[in-house]
Amino acid sequence: MSLRLIVAEDAVLLREGLIGLFERVGHKVVAAVGDAEALEKAVRADRPDLIVTDVRMPPALGDDGLRSAVRLREEFPGLPVLVLSQYVERSYALRLLDSGGGAGVGYLLKERVSAVTDFMAAIERVATGGTVVDPEVITQLVRLHQDPLERLSPREREVLALIAEGQTNAGLAKSLFLSEAAVNKHIGNIFNKLDLPVDTDGHRRVLAVLAFLRS
C-alpha cells in the first residue's frame, strides 16, 4: 500500500527522519510542515491519505497540532489522522478520538514506538479506517471519566476497565479468575450493549473504551 502523507512536526530532525522512513517503505510525503497553520493550509491544498502530526507545535507551542487535527476532521469527515506525541493532551485527545466514530484515527506516544514494522502497520491501519490508541493514552483518559455506563453490569464494567488498560482476553481471564469463554461472553455483551456493529471488526475494543470515556 502506497500512501500520500502530510507530516506536521516542528522538530526538524524528527520531521526529516519521518520523511525518510515513510519514503523508504514506499509512501509519498506530499507536504512536511512545522506549525499548525501550515498543516491546515497543506491539507486544504492537497488532501492526503493520512496526516501524521505532533500535538505541541507553533504558533502557540501548546496543543496547536491536536486542535488543528480536530478542526480538519470536522472539515473533512473521514480524514485519517495519526497523532504522534511525547505526552497525552487530555482536553482535546478525547475529542479527536471521538470524531468520526473513532474510525481512521490514532494516538501514539513517541517514546513507546520502538518497532518500525509496528509503526508502519499502525499507519496503514489508520489510513484504512482503523483505530490505533496507545494503552497509556487510554489509561490517562479513563482516569478523567470515572462514571460507568449504566447499561453495563458491574462485572462488564470491570472487564471494560481492564480492556482500557490493554489487557488481552487471556490476561482478563487470569485477572478475573474466569475462563476465556466467559471473558468472550462478557466482551460480546459489552459490544452489544454499546451498540457496536460487527462490521467495526478489530477496533471494537477501542471503540468500546471510547464509549466508556464519553459517558
From TrEMBL:
Recorded GO MF terms: DNA binding
HTH luxR-type domain sequence ranges: 145-215
Pfam family, one: Response_reg
Gene Ontology BP, a term: regulation of DNA-templated transcription
Modified residues (4-aspartylphosphate): 54
SUPFAM superfamilies in UniProt: CheY-like (SSF52172)
Superkingdom, taxonomy of origin: Bacteria
Gene3D superfamilies recorded: 3.40.50.2300
Alphabetical UniProt keywords: DNA-binding, Phosphoprotein, Transcription, Transcription regulation
Segments passing through the bilayer: none
Coiled coil: none
All residue ranges annotated as the Response regulatory domain in the record: 4-125
PANTHER family associated with the record: TRANSCRIPTIONAL REGULATORY PROTEIN NARL-RELATED, TWO-COMPONENT RESPONSE REGULATOR
Stated name of the protein: Response regulator transcription factor
Source lineage: Bacteria, Bacillati, Actinomycetota, Actinomycetes, Kitasatosporales
